[in-house]
Amino acid sequence: MQKSIQFVRSKTFLIHFILIMGSIVMLFPFIWMILTSLKTYAESIQVPPVMIPEDFQWKNYQEVFTLLPFFKFMMNTFIITVLRTAGQLFLCSLAAYAFARIVFPGRNLLFVLALSVLMVPGQVFLLPQYMIMVKLGWLNTLQAVVVPGLFSAFGTFLLRQFFMGLPKELEEAARLDGCNHFQIYWRIMLPLAKPGLIALGIFTILWSWNELMWPMIVNSSPEAMTLAVGLSSLQGQYGTNYPILMAGSFLAVLPMLLLFIILQKQFIEGIAITGGK
Amino acid sequence: MEPLPLQVETKRKLHVLSYASTKKRSDYLWAYIMIAPTMIGLFVFYLWPMLQTFYFSFTEWGAFGTYEWIGLKNYTRMLSDVNLLQSFKNTGIYILFTVPLGIFLSILVAVLLNQKIKGTTIYRTLYFLPVITMPAAIAMVWKWLYNSDFGLLNYLLSFIGIEGPQWLTNPNIALYSIIAVAIWSGIGYNMVIFLSGLQGIPKTYYEAAEMDGAGPVTMFFKITLPLLSPVIFFVSIMSLIGAFQFFDLIFMMISKSSTALENTQSIVYLFYQHAFVLNDKGYAAAIAVLLLVVILIITVIQMALQKKWVHYD
């Protein structure tokens, strides 16, 4: 008894108390999303609100797939995300290696040009990018999202930092063995830059999966629509049917949730790498 | 005849030199091959478009993608564009609240999580959840929580005898409702950066301060904050740039016909409207250029101000 009173007055208790209150605020919208997704329409608009649905309407999830080409949206988003991520990891690391480890004429100028892209808000590129897509006839195709997303000034910058930190001796040894730069990059440097690659990979996956504006501009037909855009159209068409909207939302965030649960440490480290250090 | 020693030396040097220069040339070749895909991509999709947007900002667009040069008219038009001024004000309010409050709350959580307590991993995970969640989905669930008729928030408020407002349709409140969601979804990200910054502060500083009889509050202001200031600086620049480009939540949460639209739309929202809804692309380009200029100015000011409060050791 004495001990528990002491605990309640202690600093640790206060910290837990604040953190738990915060956690509830953080977590509750997700719980509400899931609970609402399992309600009947009538339950969802009942006053006072129903907390736990009387019996779980799993068919809401089925409904999302029949009302919309939701599976198609998922596949589109998946393909776009995989291609963008793989492409960026390869192309950025390639350029980053050259910028970090080879001295060549024009290096600084070209690097400053790449950096200037990093400083500029995305909207500045958007209109001409859209016109390029119109000219190429790429509207409503997946490559309209994939191709511009293959090139990243951010990724090049991030990985260059990584390559610069690696020891020179390894490179010299490999050169004596007759390796060319591509071989040094591929066999020696790339494996060593793994933390940087993982960080960039996670960022690219998150951005591609969640991005709204660009995919919305270039892909408005269901054939090539992504999940984020699909959700906004779901909202337009079924604006009041919240159980369906919540089921769709939950399905759209589920893959990232699972990925986060599996790769939690890498997510956190990735952000720490790009942020504080 | 034996060659003279000097000749041998020269020959060898020449040989080494030509070897070095072919090696160098192949180095250059490799470098250009390796940077080519990214540089060409950046040029085609980013650098050239950047110049084009500058050019377009001096043009007016017709119905079929035709445009003509109109000089500075788009820019002079801005001066009397009530919507644009309002969107600047909205973006300003948005920044004023999300950046300092977001930073304050994420430092608070990071400091608490940096203590020796149980369950830090679980807390960290929970606070991080909104970061990985699609803004479109976040917008949807909050819209439902905010709903003035069936929403949970107003129901909870009714318990303490408050009649909840029209969170998203009242023009005086809607922007703040969105701001709350934006802060909610950004805390986890900044918290992780601050946490890694906190872990870089040597424990010995605190031990020494404790010996001198400093309390936790003194330690926070005299040790933690100054040593964390480079990280705070970094986060504040990044959040500011991010906040200037605020779009997704407004687009998803405020309906196009809402009376609150005018009081919530951001600069980027207005850009989107002009560029892709109203087909007023020249003006949209001018808005994009203005956005760039404003961000650059503010970043430069922040860089200048940092000397006053950021401590690098």
Q: Give the C-alpha Rg of chain A.
A: 24 Å
Q: Give the overall pLDDT of chain A as a whole number.
A: 91
Strand order of the largest sheet of chain B: 1-2
Helix residue percentage of chain A: over 70%
**Beta-strand fraction estimate of chain A:** under 5%
What is the H/E order of chain B? Answer: HEEHHHHHHHHHHHH
Helix content estimate of chain B: over 70%
Number of helices of chain A: 16
- Terminal-residue CA separation of chain B: 67 Å
DSSP strand count of chain A: 0
Structure classification of chain A: mainly alpha
The most extensive contact between chains is: A-B, 94 and 96 residues
How many beta-strand elements of chain B? Answer: 2
Q: State the separation between the terminal residues of chain A, measured CA to CA.
A: 47 Å
Describe this structure in words.
- The complex is a heterodimer of chains A (277) and B (313).
- With 277 residues, chain A is mainly α.
- Chain A has helices at residues 2-9, 11-37, 41-44, 59-67, 70-101, 107-119, 123-136, 143-146, 153-164, 168-176, 181-192, 194-210, 213-218, 227-237, 242-262, 264-274.
- In chain A, 45% of the residues are buried.
- The model of chain A has no long low-confidence stretch (mean pLDDT 91).
- Chain B has 313 residues and is mainly α.
- In chain B, 37% of the residues are buried.
Topology:
The complex is a heterodimer of chains A (277) and B (313).
Chain A: H1 2-9, H2 11-37, H3 41-44, H4 59-67, H5 70-101, H6 107-119, H7 123-136, H8 143-146, H9 153-164, H10 168-176, H11 181-192, H12 194-210, H13 213-218, H14 227-237, H15 242-262, H16 264-274
Helix pairs in contact in A: 2-15, 4-15, 5-9, 5-11, 5-12, 6-9, 10-11, 12-16, 14-15
Chain B: H1 5-56, E1 59-61, E2 67-69, H2 73-79, H3 82-113, H4 120-132, H5 135-146, H6 152-159, H7 174-199, H8 203-211, H9 216-244, H10 248-253, H11 261-264, H12 267-277, H13 281-309
Antiparallel strand pairs in B: 1-2
